[in-house]
Amino acid sequence: MQPVASLSLDADNQWAYQMIRGQADWERAPSYLPAMTDRALELLDARSLHATFFLVGRDAEADADAAAFAALAAAGHEIGNHSYRHEPWLHRYSEIELDDELGAAEVAITAATGVHPTGFRGPGYSLSTATLRVLQRRGYRYDASTLPMILGPIARAVYFRTARLTVEQRAERSLLYGSWSDARRPIRPYRWSLPGGGPVELPVTVLPFLRLPVHVSYLLMLSVYSEAAARAYLRVALRTCRAARVEPSILLHPLDVLSGDEVPDLRFFPGMQIPTAVKLQRVGSYLDLLARDYTVVTVGEHVERATARGLPERGPDFSS
Prior knowledge:
Strand content: 5-15%
CATH architecture: Alpha-Beta Barrel
Order of helices and strands: EHHEHHEHEHEHHEEHHEHEHE
Number of helices: 12
Shape: globular
CATH topology: TIM Barrel
Helix content: 40-55%
């Protein structure tokens, strides 16, 4: 039997990117979610693949976005919680604030999709001991917020160079994309050790040993310089995962199926200069490579299969 790989998409909306960057007009809540959802569904349906979509509660309350989210659930994709306000400084929240945040997202997401989420991914890979305790109390089966890569602080420094942020905002975003210590975290599934049993952690996959990203946005960034190199990198990454006995969990973002011509306010993101048709073809080819070597499942199913084999435990080691 083929090993499994999971596929997920964080449904970060246009307003969320603008908020994190400090653009004042984010409160108008501009959205591209209906168009993004249509394209993601087409890519997955054409390959008979199912993925996990981590949804933001605030978007689930807008009529057009709620309809898009309902279409994801109707197509059989797993629905996860990506917070209510998509603030990547979630690790700074108190447990009471976290409980309110996750609860509000659950209500909105359930109303839009008919599905009560039991999987969580923090915005900007934000995670804390308090978050894990809240997830445990609220009955979540798994968390998928860790990205154990080495490039997080470098990506943050590049981002800060052009972002319009106050001193306070930079402090809030001080762990955006993670810290150097994140690269020492496990790359295989494990269970958080909490009294009464914690949720399972399924890390976003990075290249074993080198701890470089493997997510689709990174592949598209490489493809700006050489599409052949991007595809070769993915092939090497998947082979390395197989050799290291790592079943990959591959991440997509909305900007992987949108171009800068469609979302001019987000042209600054890497890969946004790629025309939409070309970008969709490239993303489709990456999915084909994944599906050739792995049985592609949702994050929830990936967690179930990993749990059935037995998981090591790891105590929370966050500062909060």
